[in-house]
Amino acid sequence: MELFDKLSQGEALIESAILVQINFGSNNRSQHSSGASSTQDEHEFKELVRSAGAITSTLITGSRASPDSRYFVGTGKADEIKTAVKQHDADVVIFDHSLSPAQERNLERLFECRVLDRTALILDIFAQRAQSHEGKLQVELAQLKHMSTRLVRGWTHLERQKGGIGMRGPGETQLETDRRLLSIRIKQINKRLDKVNKQREQGRQLRQKTEIPTVSLVGYTNAGKSTLFNKITGSGVYAADQLFATLDPTLRRVNLPDQQSIVLADTVGFIRDLPHDLVAAFRATLQETIEADLILHVIDSSDENRDFFREQVNNVIQELGAEDVQQVEVMNKIDLTEQEPHVEEGHNGLPARVWLSSLTGEGLEALSETIAAIFAKNTFRGKLRLHPALARLRAQLYEDEAVVSESISDKGEYLLDVVIQQRRFDTMLGKEELTLEQVQ
């Protein structure tokens, strides 16, 4: 009766969870996903579970050379987990690893409760956080793809096409029906996402035409991106001390000290071993990072594991194909350390690192000046001499509204005064297989 009252009142039920984290050694870390036993990994795992709305009853750890094909863990460890489930009356067992469909089913039969792997856990958090139409579609798409791999032999008790007396049944098995329905729904979502992607692409093209550069905020989840975004833009984007507090991308126009304008994009936070299906599903959202003129990599400077987090974020950036985009590290949360706000230069003489506090606002002015200085250096201003055969390049420059003035030489060449983002200009020249010296 008490349970019914909670459900009727819309009160969220808090589940108790048994957590499992197995160390497969440093050599197998990448292969077996999340196979680590460090304090930081345990803390992050527990934070993921807390973000999903569950309470950790206990964390069971262990070491193996490789996963067991049947239970992922050995039979002794599986019995230990089963005992813990009964002892704590747990609702779910969550593995900080990727489980195969067969392993998941075997473990559920053994434990007599639900079993989730790391991918399903993160998908659940994303489903709770998604607010926009696009975000909800992307989460559903990732969930359906994950679910489709779990349908194998999931309905064998309804199988009616094995042949033999008494085994001949209706034209379609339950398993085939589920597969067909999933396939139809996935196609529907992909069509809707294609439409949203076209709208986003139109917005990006418009910003390119108006020469408004895009700056993308990226960083490990809970590094303070959304707090920094709110300080710079004066927006009210939701920010909290939890993993994946912000999921949907947000774009705002910001004016810099030298009258330049930029579009600042806040994106979803990254995390260790982010499932590939999620990276693929959110590729459209993260397109703002790929197409950005500058990446601000927000790092929690007070975290002793910041170097590891930096590596994980850069891995995702590389997976997205944005490793060539200029990057400035924003060392956030100096209010928790003894650091003073300052700017560090890299080997190329350009700003490489800005130390600030998005909470107190210390160092924000230096960050704005740094962004302005970078775009001032990354803007091409000069005269071009184009042969009539390069009419396509001339048309592209006009389409991007980069031409300030134009005249024609005695030889019939186009003489153009141009102001354009260097990266965009380089792309144009590359398509025409030209160098700057050939058009000056």
TrEMBL record:
<feature type="binding site">
    <location>
        <position position="226"/>
    </location>
    <ligand>
        <name>Mg(2+)</name>
    </ligand>
</feature>
<feature type="binding site">
    <location>
        <begin position="357"/>
        <end position="359"/>
    </location>
    <ligand>
        <name>GTP</name>
    </ligand>
</feature>
<comment type="subunit">
    <text>Monomer. Associates with the 50S ribosomal subunit.</text>
</comment>
<dbReference type="Pfam" id="PF01926">
    <property type="entry name" value="MMR_HSR1"/>
</dbReference>
<feature type="binding site">
    <location>
        <begin position="332"/>
        <end position="335"/>
    </location>
    <ligand>
        <name>GTP</name>
    </ligand>
</feature>
<feature type="binding site">
    <location>
        <begin position="219"/>
        <end position="226"/>
    </location>
    <ligand>
        <name>GTP</name>
    </ligand>
</feature>
<keyword id="KW-0547">Nucleotide-binding</keyword>
<keyword id="KW-0460">Magnesium</keyword>
<dbReference type="GO" id="GO:0005525">
    <property type="term" value="F:GTP binding"/>
</dbReference>
<dbReference type="InterPro" id="IPR032305">
    <property type="entry name" value="GTP-bd_M"/>
</dbReference>
<dbReference type="Pfam" id="PF13167">
    <property type="entry name" value="GTP-bdg_N"/>
</dbReference>
<feature type="coiled-coil region">
    <location>
        <begin position="179"/>
        <end position="206"/>
    </location>
</feature>
<dbReference type="InterPro" id="IPR016496">
    <property type="entry name" value="GTPase_HflX"/>
</dbReference>
<dbReference type="GO" id="GO:0005737">
    <property type="term" value="C:cytoplasm"/>
</dbReference>
<keyword id="KW-0963">Cytoplasm</keyword>
<feature type="domain" description="Hflx-type G">
    <location>
        <begin position="213"/>
        <end position="379"/>
    </location>
</feature>
<dbReference type="InterPro" id="IPR006073">
    <property type="entry name" value="GTP-bd"/>
</dbReference>
<keyword id="KW-0175">Coiled coil</keyword>
<dbReference type="GO" id="GO:0043022">
    <property type="term" value="F:ribosome binding"/>
</dbReference>
<comment type="function">
    <text>GTPase that associates with the 50S ribosomal subunit and may have a role during protein synthesis or ribosome biogenesis.</text>
</comment>
<protein>
    <recommendedName>
        <fullName>GTPase HflX</fullName>
    </recommendedName>
</protein>
<keyword id="KW-0479">Metal-binding</keyword>
<feature type="binding site">
    <location>
        <begin position="244"/>
        <end position="248"/>
    </location>
    <ligand>
        <name>GTP</name>
    </ligand>
</feature>
<dbReference type="Pfam" id="PF16360">
    <property type="entry name" value="GTP-bdg_M"/>
</dbReference>
<dbReference type="InterPro" id="IPR042108">
    <property type="entry name" value="GTPase_HflX_N_sf"/>
</dbReference>
<dbReference type="InterPro" id="IPR027417">
    <property type="entry name" value="P-loop_NTPase"/>
</dbReference>
<feature type="binding site">
    <location>
        <position position="246"/>
    </location>
    <ligand>
        <name>Mg(2+)</name>
    </ligand>
</feature>
<keyword id="KW-0342">GTP-binding</keyword>
<comment type="similarity">
    <text>Belongs to the TRAFAC class OBG-HflX-like GTPase superfamily. HflX GTPase family.</text>
</comment>
<dbReference type="InterPro" id="IPR025121">
    <property type="entry name" value="GTPase_HflX_N"/>
</dbReference>
<dbReference type="GO" id="GO:0046872">
    <property type="term" value="F:metal ion binding"/>
</dbReference>
<dbReference type="GO" id="GO:0003924">
    <property type="term" value="F:GTPase activity"/>
</dbReference>
<feature type="binding site">
    <location>
        <begin position="266"/>
        <end position="269"/>
    </location>
    <ligand>
        <name>GTP</name>
    </ligand>
</feature>
<dbReference type="InterPro" id="IPR030394">
    <property type="entry name" value="G_HFLX_dom"/>
</dbReference>
